[in-house]
Specification:
By secondary structure, this protein is α/β, with parallel strands linked by helices. It is built from 14 helices and 24 strands. Strand 20 and strand 21 (about 355) form a beta hairpin. Helix 5 crosses helix 6. The chain starts with a helix and ends in a 22-residue tail after the last strand. About 45% of the residues are buried.
Length: about 450
């Protein structure tokens, strides 16, 4: 069976002195990484059939070693949020031990649960390899690339970037989020202190992180223009305003918006720094993937990157995975050039007086308002229409909400029925730790 672990062993022979992983002051070469993996494998008990092991996804080389050692030893790995309380961690581990896993399973990854209960998704070794090859073909990963990872390693957004780098023998730099922007930007100077680290960089940033960077560190981001090969974003919709700003700051950098999820794997990608900067465009399917739009306007995916199922939940699996096709709740269309365009989620659509409104369209228009830092469009009860649109906004520090000015801004960009009736300034917007709007937190109609 071809696996990432076999590529690590091969790269330990081909490039023994190439630095594989960097985290803070610690780093290890491919030879050292492979040795540490083998040493940990030797301490693990032989897995009983279908064995699954939980581990905390710390931003560390130790996690990378443990993750690959479990695979090499024959276990499936279930990376968990690193700060999960001990009792909750043990409860999940106990629950997982009661359910069989599909043959060839490499990982069980938990979804973020923004619209419902978090689900354990089984990912196979062959799926991981297919995801890696999709990213290599679609985004130009190479042996001479240093990839800076700053997101949680228990979710596909950041975890999947390890795949192509390990396959090609590149370098990973792990940063513990964006809590310290200086540490994040210093990661793009790793080649200056560690000889042998390639000076061509790339990274993955969720839209919420991109907004932080363009608002508070635009000059430092622009200073990376000559060494930033590409940036990928995904996990949530990025506003066109932020897309355009990023293109201006990094005119020679490839900027990818990707369609992917834990269940579908890495499906399609679009370089929006192409002179057109089309919001909502997610490009064409990559080599191992195919997609089509159902009669209901929903995106359906096929190919080698799909999950094998939800652990312990065959009924839920059958509701979305049928005949080697994964049926999503994402609304989309395919244009004449074969490019996928996302129009939000079916579950998020708000019915206002018989008109259907995708809140993402309202939010995208609002984010172009100059004094806005963040926002979410939600449904609320209304005595006449039954349901009305309300826009919750976070203003840039020092700015106050002018409801009339914001409404006029939206009227110039949206059909009348899509313009919210109500507006409220709030201290913050509920988001998941990987940047998605947590719409589940606003389900109370009396909000």
């Amino acid at each position: 069976m071809v696996s990432l672990e076999s590529y690590i062993a091969l790269n330990a022979e081909r490039y023994p002195d190439r630095i594989a992983v960097v985290c803070g002051d610690e780093h290890c070469t491919y030879a050292e990484l492979n040795r540490r993996i083998d040493e940990l494998v030797a301490t693990l008990a032989p897995p009983m059939g279908g064995a699954l092991a939980c581990l905390r996804a710390h931003a560390s080389i130790e996690f990378i070693v443990s993750y690959f050692a479990l695979h090499r030893a024959g276990y499936a790995a279930a990376p968990m949020e690193r700060d999960m309380p001990h009792a909750a961690f043990e409860a999940v581990a106990q629950e997982l031990s009661r359910h069989p896993i599909s043959e060839g399973t490499a990982d069980v990854l938990y979804t973020t649960g923004t619209t419902g209960k978090s689900k354990g998704v089984m990912i196979s070794h062959s799926t991981i390899v297919a995801d890696a090859e999709n990213l290599i073909a679609g985004q130009g990963f190479s042996h001479d690339l240093t990839f800076v990872i700053n997101g949680p390693l228990n979710h596909i957004g950041s975890l999947s970037k390890i795949y192509p780098v390990m396959m090609l023998g590149g370098t990973i730099v792990i940063v513990d989020g964006l809590k310290d922007l200086s540490t994040f930007f210093d990661a793009f100077n790793t080649h200056l202190r560690l000889p042998g680290v390639p000076a061509r960089y790339a990274t993955f940033l969720v839209p919420a992180s991109i907004r932080i960077l363009v608002q508070f560190s635009a000059d430092r981001l622009a200073a990376l223009a000559d060494r930033m090969d590409f940036i990928e974003t995904g996990a949530a919709a990025i506003s066109q305003a932020d897309m355009q700003t990023l293109c201006q700051l990094l005119p020679r950098t490839r900027l990818y918006n990707t369609y992917a999820s834990t269940e579908t794997g890495i499906i399609s990608t679009y370089n929006f720094n192409d002179g057109h900067c089309v919001a909502g465009c997610l490009g064409r399917p990559m080599p191992h993937s195919r997609l089509f739009i159902t009669e209901q306007g929903l995106i359906a995916c096929q190919g080698d990157t799909l999950m094998t199922g939800y652990i312990g939940d065959p009924e839920r699996t059958a509701s979305v995975l049928r005949d080697a096709t994964l049926y999503t709740s994402d609304l989309g269309r395919i244009d004449d050039g074969g490019m996928l365009h996302l129009a939000g989620r079916e579950d998020d659509v708000i019915n206002v007086g018989g008109f259907k409104v995708a809140p993402t369209e309202v939010e995208d228009a609002a984010m172009a308002y100059p004094d806005l830092k963040d926002c979410i469009c939600i449904p609320v009860e209304h005595k006449i229409t039954g349901v009305a649109l309300k826009l919750l906004v976070v203003m840039i520090e020092g700015k106050t909400l002018d409801k009339r000015a914001l409404a006029l801004h939206l009227k110039s960009r949206l059909e009348t029925y899509k313009v919210p009736l109500l507006y409220e300034a709030v201290p913050s917007i509920h988001r998941t730790f990987n940047g998605k709007l947590n719409r589940k937190a606003y389900l109370n109609p009396n909000t």
